[in-house]
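Repro:
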Amino acid sequence: MNDRTPEPEGTHPRPVVCSRCGATAECLPLTWTYSLENDTRHYLCEPCARDHIRSIEGRLDPTWW
């Protein structure tokens, strides 16, 4: 009765990787942000997001950061 239902294989979240510095996190922290480029999400850790927030909000191409 108290047995947990096993999770199907392949449902475990993959670690999230910062597209700027390569920092990783087991699950997506609330302080991380992402940009959508060519229908692909590119995650940014908190320090990278803080460093580039004006460029992100101005929608500058990441090559200009």
